[in-house]
Amino acid sequence: MKPSDNHPQQKFTRDLQYYKFCAYGFLKNLRFYEPFLMLFFLEKGLSYAQIGTLYAAREIMINLAEIPSGVLADTLGRRLTMAISFVAYILAFVTFFLSTQYWTLVVAMVAYAFGDAFRTGTHKAMIFDYLTSRNWQHLKAHYYGHTRSWSQRGAALSALIAAALVFRHGSYAPVFLFTIIPYTLDLILIMSYPKNLDGPRHSSTRTIRDEFAHVIASFRKSMTNPGTLRAVASQALYSGYYKACKDYLQPLLRSLALGLPLFLALAGEERTALITGVVYSGLYLITSMASRRAGALGDRFGNDLARPLNAMLLGGVGFGVLSGLAQVASLPAIAVVLYIGIYATENLRKPLGISYVTERMDKDSLASALSLESQAETVVSAGVAILLGLLATFFGPGGGLMITSALCGLAGILLRLPPERTEFTERESRPL
């Protein structure tokens, strides 16, 4: 039952669609390859610079497809767009498994990029439209944090299963094939979503051509607001930094595994699989708790989410600087602990940031606008990935992380979000 507009609920109901949203995130994060993706590339003989170009190629292709995918979702329907996403993912996993050369890995990354571009902003828009239909829009950070926490639980389980797969097969490649199973289930789940989550197209009487024009006009209206652009830039900076840096934890864990006096009877790859699986599983349990508590943290600051968002951005890149310093000082255990701070910050900050951004967007082009936010992340991530890859090649992973994190911290200071004040909001709300 939809609550009264005069007396909005302070808690959301965990109905069937809530569990579908949670199941989607859980299955989506059963990415058995994720804890070993960089190690997979290193196993193929790639340098850090080449790996950086692979990540950049993925992010550039996401960037090119992100806005069209959002417009397509708002125009033709979000469930169909999500189905296209999962088909692209599955094609990417098959290509990764079969790849033997650098260029085939580029093809796999491009297919993966299309999957990401057609998924990210689209599913968030479905969640926020659902909240609006139930008059729960004031609970965005709480609801999104809960569903995101299930994504992190899926990642925690995924890390343990992935470790067992690598241990059993003695190779990183098979994990891509096993990832096809949960992604096929997620494709089926998405198609079971109710039609009213398809977005504006579901209830619109316009032709597809007119719907497209309406979405573009709504999108332009959102993007001519300076406050919206600044919010998107701040959110994209840290999430893009996180996406570019997160996999550099893997070679660090390999160094830690080979240096510990544990499991000495096992081969180096098997020891790496065990240590990586355990650490990643614990890490994702921590990030799950962080996402789940994001809403409560936001409540402590009321309407002024700018304060925690600014602080967490600088704190997250600060963890990166210190972790890089620990790596340079040959303290891998301390570096790993500090690296976990980068992950935890992203999962605490993301629900608050998305809530902050969506409050400044036009509802009729929500998928398109959220796709712009994801696109901005890919621009940052591509640039950081290339920079970090080059710096890691010349100064080692620790030195590269330390310098890159410091530069992102400086950018964070420049993009600092203003406090929530009436006079500022009125000034910023005027279109350019």
From TrEMBL:
SUPFAM superfamilies: MFS general substrate transporter. The chain crosses the membrane at residues 86-114, 150-167, 174-193, 248-266, 273-291, 311-340, 378-395. Keywords: Membrane, Transmembrane, Transmembrane helix. PROSITE patterns: MFS. It holds the Pfam family MFS_1. This is MFS transporter. It comes from the Bacteria. The keyword Amino-acid biosynthesis does not apply. It comes from Alkalispirochaeta sphaeroplastigenens. Residues 1-423 form the Major facilitator superfamily (MFS) profile domain. GO terms for molecular function: transmembrane transporter activity.
